[in-house]
């Protein structure tokens, strides 16, 4: 940045140069009192200096939280998202998963979490104009073996799940060749995977999505109840790696999380994030929750939903917290072709016998 870009009195600019500031950006790293001492300028001149530099340096105008909630931030909202391969789910997520940060998907066993992640591994391979990133995915398994049979079934059912896409485009994708599967049996193997092998794939442009299924398995099994501090340190180190990879390569990170039962009775130290009536909460506590940007809960509800004379157990996908999303939810089901949300006004997709 050239000093001439600043809309300031030449006297102020001369005083700044005399104080040996090499660039205008350095001004923002120095407090007002220190600037007064170094430049011998008045408090008013220093305030003008700070405001002028900030106005030039920032790339866009600041926005408020209220503007975010109302969707009045086109500069921020126009960013590309990874599609969930379903209009209803994408509507809940305002386009899909954000490109930066960790998205957590928590839920009980058989809720459909792995199904959702497999669907993302296919969606990421489509071009950007169709909601993908035109790249592959890394899938790290820490509990069970990778569900390869279910993946192959989802691949064959892509025309049914994505009828909006040209059939030729779907046929041109070599889906299974672009999913890199890793198995981590302990924390050491998990750390080695995300710090050594995954960065190589990201750097070469072979992948743009990282899935960890699940993050809770190893951290819950390798630490005892009285080792909370050590577990928090390892969680922080692990999440730092994930954040760095996501921001450096513009890659969404999805972490599946288990749940823990809620014990009745007062517990002022528990943070339930508004899930007051829930009998389960995401595992790993507040240490991990503070590292998550978007938290989703997938629940299995009583009853069935119908689609084209086929039934599925009713699920509910809920946004627990996110910086750009309101607290909301939608019903969904898992069919042969994948996870699909249920439109509120669709007469063919209504819960049957749910309570």
Characterise this structure:
With 355 residues, the protein is an alpha/beta fold. The protein has 14 helices and 12 strands. It has helices at residues 10-18, 32-39, 43-57, 65-70, 74-77, 87-92, 113-123, 148-156, 158-161, 167-172, 187-203, 215-221, 228-249, 285-289, and strands at 102-106, 136-141, 179-183, 207-213, 253-257, 259-261, 280-282, 294-307, 310-321, 328-335, 338-341, 351-352. The strands form 2 sheets. Strands 1, 2, 3, 4, 5, 8, 9, 10, 11 and 12 form a 10-stranded mixed sheet that branches. A two-stranded antiparallel ribbon has the order 6-7. The model is unreliable at 74-78 and 347-355 (pLDDT under 50). One of its GO terms (biological process) is resolution of mitotic recombination intermediates. InterPro entries: DNA_recomb/repair_RecA-like (IPR016467), HHH_XRCC3_RAD51B (IPR058766), Rad51_C (IPR013632), RecA_ATP-bd (IPR020588), XRCC3-like_C (IPR047348). It is found in: Nucleus. Residues 78-259 form the RecA family profile domain. This is DNA repair protein XRCC3-like.
């Amino acid at each position: 940045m050239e000093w001439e870009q600043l809309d300031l009195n030449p006297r102020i600019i001369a005083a700044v140069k005399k104080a040996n500031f090499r660039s205008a950006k350095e001004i923002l790293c120095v407090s007002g009192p220190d600037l007064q001492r170094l430049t011998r300028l008045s408090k008013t001149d220093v305030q003008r200096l700070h405001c002028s530099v900030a106005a030039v340096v920032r790339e866009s105008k600041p926005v408020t939280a209220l503007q975010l909630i109302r969707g009045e931030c086109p500069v921020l909202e126009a960013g590309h998202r990874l599609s969930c391969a379903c209009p209803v789910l994408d509507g809940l997520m305002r386009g899909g998963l954000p490109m930066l940060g960790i998205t957590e998907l928590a839920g009980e066993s058989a809720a459909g979490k792995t199904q959702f992640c497999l669907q993302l591994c296919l969606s990421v391979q489509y071009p950007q104009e169709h909601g993908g990133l035109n790249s592959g995915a890394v899938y790290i398994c820490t509990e069970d073996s990778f569900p390869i049979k279910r993946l192959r079934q989802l691949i064959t059912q892509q025309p049914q799940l994505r009828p909006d896409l040209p059939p030729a485009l779907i046929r041109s994708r070599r889906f299974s060749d672009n999913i890199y599967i890793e198995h981590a049996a302990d924390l050491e193997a998990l750390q080695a995977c995300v710090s050594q092998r995954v960065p190589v794939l990201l750097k070469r442009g072979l992948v743009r999505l990282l899935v960890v299924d699940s993050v809770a398995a190893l951290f819950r099994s390798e630490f005892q109840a009285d080792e909370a501090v050590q577990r928090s340190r390892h969680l922080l180190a692990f999440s730092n790696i994930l954040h760095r990879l996501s921001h450096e390569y513009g890659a969404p990170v999805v972490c599946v999380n288990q749940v823990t039962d809620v014990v009745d009775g007062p517990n002022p130290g528990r943070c339930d994030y508004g899930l007051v009536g829930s009998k389960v909460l995401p595992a790993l506590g507040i240490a991990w929750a503070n590292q998550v940007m978007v938290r989703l809960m997938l629940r299995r509800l009583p009853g069935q939903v119908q689609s084209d004379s086929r039934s599925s157990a009713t699920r509910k996908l809920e946004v627990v917290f996110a910086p750009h999303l309101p607290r909301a939810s939608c019903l969904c089901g898992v069919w042969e072709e994948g996870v699909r949300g249920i439109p509120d006004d669709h007469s063919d997709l209504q819960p049957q016998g749910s309570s």
